[in-house]
Write a sequence for this structure.
């Protein structure tokens, strides 16, 4: 991880629309966003979703069902969309969209 580098990401909190943010890249900042240990979900095309790896067992609020070409994933707590270049996080290459009464369905476009 190229700590200290500034990257642009999409952050989605439960019940809210995703918002674009610019952050300083560090493990601590990523952990603060998701509220704990970071788990990555590779979604292809150079992007990953990060979430709290203990979101379900820690009873974090349901965020959204992420619809991607190879399946649907139920995500809990705050999530973020980042870019990935081999083993490095980078700015998100796509955007994170949501819809539904409580923004409960999300997808990458």
């Amino acid at each position: 991880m190229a700590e200290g580098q500034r990257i642009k990401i999409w952050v989605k909190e439960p019940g809210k629309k995703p918002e674009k943010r610019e952050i300083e890249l560090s493990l601590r900042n990523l952990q603060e966003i998701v509220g704990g240990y970071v788990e990555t979900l590779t979604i292809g095309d150079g992007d990953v979703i990060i979430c709290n790896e203990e979101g379900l067992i820690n009873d974090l609020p349901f965020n959204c069902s992420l619809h991607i070409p190879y399946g649907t994933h139920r995500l809990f707590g705050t999530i973020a969309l980042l870019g990935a270049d081999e083993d490095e996080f980078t700015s998100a290459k796509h955007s994170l969209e949501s819809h539904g009464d409580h923004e409960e369905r999300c997808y990458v476009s």
